[in-house]
Amino acid sequence: MWSIVQWGALIPEEINFGTMYRLNTYPFIHTGFFHALFNALAVAPLLERFEAEHGTLTAVALFVGPLSTVPAGLYILIERVMLHRNTSVIGASVWVFLLLGSEAIKTYKSHPNFSLGPYKIPTWTSPLFACIVVSILISNVSFLGHLCAILVGYLLGLGYLKVFVPPEKVLRWIEGKLNLLGRLPHYVSVDQKTYGRYGVLPTANQASEQTPLSYLGTSQRLGA
């Protein structure tokens, strides 16, 4: 009997030229309703913030593409090549921990440490603690999969993955051709986003004064 989990899960030994799609399908597949629900609740606010900062098209392109593929590739490298194991992975929690890693790097740049009693702990370690706690409290989660996602999130936060960001000229052409801003509610266009390919846009403050708040903080479309 055909199973969508078996078809689209990230199974290291099943990866070949004919099944490369698994590198991008596994975040969309879940074991059941509650698995999907909890992942959606966790990832929605993080994706919403990312979408407001980078635009809707960029968010879709990155998460359907490299921000699924790169963690998967790293996981396969460690799981299959180094550890010689074949544990399958599914679920959008990869995006949750990836975004937590990226946000932790941003936080570290402005607030390098947080205090825990007499100890100063680097803020970039917070996703690692979350990964450990989730692995202890919830059964059948992939500690290695989450760890790979965090490492890729660190790279994203440090700016090493900006090469994957689509050119704004192409994004504007797509937006104009499809009239996405007029057709989709809460759509964040190229000109409404906070960040460009190389950092904070110089017109970000001005844009925030002119852009309705509904475009910047209410879309949960990407996490549904």
UniProtKB/TrEMBL annotation:
EC number(s) recorded for this UniProt protein: 3.4.21.105
Catalysed reactions, as listed in the record: Cleaves type-1 transmembrane domains using a catalytic dyad composed of serine and histidine that are contributed by different transmembrane domains
Subcellular location: Membrane
Stretches that traverse the bilayer: 28-47, 59-77, 121-138, 144-165
Gene Ontology BP annotations: proteolysis
One Gene Ontology term of the molecular function aspect: serine-type endopeptidase activity
Name by which UniProt lists this protein: rhomboid protease
Protein's organism: Penicillium antarcticum
